[in-house]
Amino acid sequence: MALSPSRRRRAVAGLSLLAGAALTLTLLPSAQASVAEPDPREGLGAGLYDAETVTEGIDLLSTQPKPDGVNGTNSDLAFSGDYVYSGNYNGVNIYDVSDPAAPVLATSVFCPGNQNDISVYGDLLILSVEATSGRVGCASAAELPGGSANPQNVFRGIRVFDISDRTNPVNIAEVQTCKGSHTHTIVGEKDGDLYVYGSGTAGVRSTAELGRCSGASSLLDPDTANFAIDVIRIPLDDPASAEWVDNARIFSTCGSSACEADHASGALNSFPLSNPQPLVAEGLQAPGGQSASQVVTCHDLTSYPAKGLTAGACQGAGLLLDTSDPENPVRVDAVVDPNFAYWHSATFNNAGDKVIFTDEWGGGGAARCTPTSNVSILGGVVDTPTNWGANAIFDIEGTDEAPDMALKSYYKIPNVQSAAENCVAHNGSLVPVPGRDIMVQAWYQGGTSVFDFTDSANPVEIAFIDRGPVDASRLVSGGYWSSYWYNGAVFGNEIARGFDSMALTETDALNAVELAAAASVVEDETNVQNQQEIVWPASFTTVRAWQSAVERQGLLDDELSDKITATVDRAERFSTGPQAAKAKANSIRDLRRLGGLVGDSDVEAGLADAIEELADTL
Known about the structure:
Blueprint: E1 8-11, E2 14-17, E3 53-56, E4 58-64, E5 74-80, E6 83-88, E7 91-96, E8 104-110, E9 115-121, E10 124-129, E11 157-162, E12 170-176, E13 183-190, E14 193-199, E15 229-235, E16 243-248, E17 300-304, E18 309-314, E19 317-322, E20 330-335, E21 343-348, E22 354-359, E23 372-375, E24 380-383, E25 391-398, E26 403-411, E27 428-430, E28 438-442, E29 448-452, E30 460-467, E31 480-486, E32 489-494, E33 498-504, H1 512-519, E34 525-526, H2 540-552, H3 558-574, H4 581-595, H5 602-617
Antiparallel strand pairs: 1-2, 1-3, 3-30, 4-33, 5-6, 5-34, 6-7, 7-8, 9-10, 10-11, 11-12, 13-14, 14-15, 15-16, 17-18, 18-19, 19-20, 21-22, 22-25, 23-24, 25-26, 27-28, 28-29, 29-30, 31-32, 32-33
C-alpha cells in the first residue's frame, strides 16, 4: 500500500516539501522493510507551539491551547452530538466541533482529580478519579471541614454529572472505590441500569477514608480490594443513586466471583494462560524479557456489547471476558507475552474476531521509540526492540463458548524519536472503512499513527502526524494521550499543547471513496472503550468502498470488477430523475444478480450484502 507523495514538513516559518521522501514502514520482527531515505519524523525541531511538524495522509486542522482554569494534563476524550469532552487532570473542557476545522470551547468544568478519564452516556458524564488529591464535591481541601487532614474529604472513584445543559454540567453522584478509578468502561444496560467497570491501579486506601477497604496481601482474604475490578451500577431513572455493587474476581481460578476464596491465586498464573511464543530470536527472553507487572487489576477494559465481550488489559496479562451479564463478568481466555511490560488498553476490530492490546513500556513517561535503548537484559545499549512498547495483534479463534486469542504480529511506529520524547503505544480507535481493519492511534510524542491490520500478520502504516519534542534538551511530557476518529474527523488530546482536530486525506492507501464511506458513519455518541458495532448506510458509496476493499485483497478479476462498476454506475443514474420505471427496475435486478457473482470470503460477503441492501433501498 504505497503512500502518495503528499508528505508535508512544516516549521514555524512555513511549509516546505520533502520531494521523494519515503515512508519507513513498521519493522516487524518477521521481516525488515528496506528504506531509501531516512524517515521524515526523525530530528524534528522542538517547541511547545512552534515545533516542526511532519504529516502524511493527514492534515492538522486546528489546535486549541488549553484554556485558563482547566489547563492541567490533558487525558482522554468522549463524544456526543456536536461536542467533544476533553478530560483534563483539572476537570473537563467541552468543545463544539460542528465545524471540525474550527472547534469552539463551549464550557469548562473545574473538578481536579486525575486522570479524569471520561465517558458520556445520554445526559450523563462519567469521570474517573484516582489521585489522593481528589476531594468530594470537586471542592478544594480548604473549602471542606477539617481541610486536607480530614480523610472523609478525600474522593477516589467515579463521578457522575448531569449534562442535559451542556453549558452547565452538574455533579449529581460520587461513588467511592477502594483503589480509586484510574480508568472506567461503560459495559452496557440491564433492566434499566447502566453498568460501569472501574479500574484502580493505585494502592488501597485506608479504612479511615472508606471503611470497607482491605489492602491485605493474604491470598486468602476474600475482602481484599486487590485482585478485582469494581462493578458500579447507575440507575438510569435515578442516576444520583449510583452505587458500588461488588468486586468482580475475574482473576480467580474459575474466572469469576463464583470461587471467591480462590480469587487471587489466578493472578499468580495458576489459571490456564495460553503463552504465545514471542516473535523474537530464541534466547532473548530467558525466562521473561520484560519485567512484567503482576496481575492485580486491569488498567483498561474495552467492552463490545454486540459481541457480549470485553477485553481487559490487566497489567501483566490480556484477558477476554464474557460480559453478556454485566454484573457478573466471567474470564473466558487470557494471554501473557514476555515482550509486554504493562498491558495498557485494548481495541476490537468491527467483526469482533481480532483484538489489539497495547504495551505501555515505561509507563508513558519514558522515551521508548528511540533508535537505541539501554536494555540490560539484551546486553546494554542495543537497537530498541520493535516489539516492546508496541501493539500485539491477536486473532480470536476457537468457538463463542471457548474463544482463544492467537498472537499474529506486533505493530510499532518506527524508532526514530529522540530521548526528549516520551513515546509508547497508547489510546486509539477504529476508522470505519468498509472491508478493512484500520486504526488511528496516539503514541504520546511519537505523534498519531494510522495503520491497516486487515492482514493480522502484516500491519502497515498508512498515515501519520508527528511534532518535534516540547523541549530539545530534556524530556518534558507531552504528545497525544488519545487520538480517535469521530464522525468524519480525527480528534487528539495533546498532553501539553491542547486539543487538536485533524482530517485524513486521500492517498493510494486510503482512497476518496473509502474516506467518504467512513465519513458516512455518523454516531450520536462515542466512548471508545465501549465499542459499538459499525453499520454503514445503504448507499452507492458504501458499495464502492466494499468493492475497493475486495480489490485490495486481490479477490476480484478485472472482468467482474468492471461489471460491478458499470452496474453500480448505471443503477445510480437511474436512481433519481424522470427515468422510466422499467429502467430503474432493470438496474435493481442487475444489482441483485451481482451479489451472486462474488466469492464467499468475509470481505466478499460484505460486498454482496452491501449490494443487496442498496437494491432494497432503491
